[in-house]
Please model this.
Amino acid sequence: MIEATVQLLATALALGSAYALTALGFVLIINAVGAVNFAHGDLVMAGGFVAVALSLLLPEGLPVPGLILLPAVLLTMAVGGAALAAVAYAPLRRSPPVSVFISTIAVGLILQHAISLGAGPQPRVGPSLVGDGLVDLLGAALSYQQLATIAVAAVLCLAVHTLLNRTRFGRQLRAAAQDPEMARACGIDLRITIGATFALAGALAGGAGLLLSNQYFVTPTDGAMFMLKAYVATVIGGWGRIWGAAVAALCIAVFEVLVAAAVSYLVAEMLLYLGVLALLMLRPQGLFGEAEGRRA
Amino acid sequence: MTARLALDGLTVNHPDGVAVDNASFACAAGEVVALMGANGAGKSSLIRAVAGADPVASGRVRLDGEDVTALRLEQRVRTGIGWCPEGRRLFGGLTVAETLDVAATGLARDRSRAADRMYALFPILAERRGAVAWTLSGGQQQMLAIARAVIADPKVVLLDEPSIGLAPVVLDDVFAAIRRLAESGAAVVLAEQVIPRSLAIADRAIVLRRGVIVLDVPTARIDAGVVASAMLDGGSGGA
Model:
């Protein structure tokens, strides 16, 4: 019994840490530009495919293929995020937020179809982070992949936290998110902060894509599901609260995995969305409350 | 001598018409100009246009003789304009120290030295340096808003109704601090509605009524009653 519980928790935490990275990037963009990036899920999917593609270039038999590729995936997807800002956000920054919804949906679909054309619609397997192997914990056999996924996500979250709170650039990003005009009045160029936020969000999405691509595979149509999870995490965590969304994403995964194990995955999904509906009606500010200030 | 700040025929449009109509005045280094006017007279529109937050329809803004009208807000503040907007508009989630660090310029050492100057100017901020901005009292928030506007040592300081929401005893501190800014060499434009206090620290009073400058005189030569009646439509009435 204990073994099974530990096993399930490890699975849930590994899935949840990838969801948390996804939600983190998603909320950073909401905060920075007051608009929802509907291509975010497709960035996660694209990150998975970048990891798959790059892994084909690596020689066989490396001990830690995923870990070696991680910086390259983060960098590629950071560039992708910045490109998304240039294409789907910058030209529309003076338009109502709904135009950004539509432009990001369009970019997401283009990404999905382009990858489908290039790589085919079938699921692909990404590289494992540190190779295959099992660790024994309280009688449960935990895979290296699960433990490494949790560790990598924790390190990336810590890096984001450090960037936002311990560096001047991070403080500028936060100032620009809270009051763009007053940030400009402090000499901050919003094109830089917004571009950097999209790049950061892209990198986090790419990291999540790499982490998920090994155990859960990656398919060109996966974007919508990732996007929905990030959106739900944002609703639960409180609109605009970045760590609220990350924690909520982790909780979503724990809930999904436990309910799926006890009943079925379909029931888990159904209960999750029922819970979100109830939350929206009873506590629209989210479980942790809305971040002070304006709403997107 | 060239004025620190000069406005030549500044006209600012508003969705419902003209907000500021052909306004011209100058402000010298070390001088406090009180820009007086009732609600909706165009004070904020004028201040926002000078800061670069809103576009001007016509006219020029010059800083030490240099035309800065074409510069965007973030570029214009770097030429030496500090703007403390109506309603303070602090970065709610940033601490006092973080706010000052974001607004200061230069390397970490320069920024921390600049923050120390602000703590000397507003000692209460030093005590609250770790506090998140939205947890500060109204007076502390106003001081942080002013410190944020002046930490980069601007040549021109624009203050938009700093008195709003402050208790009289706090107002004394804030207005004394504003006077000290001018004494340290800045040209200060103070948009206000509270007449006696503003006149007490200002060198000149400019009255704006429905977007038009109707009075521009040294404060030594007028009293509060004159300003109050100029602020009101029709030019009659008292304080």
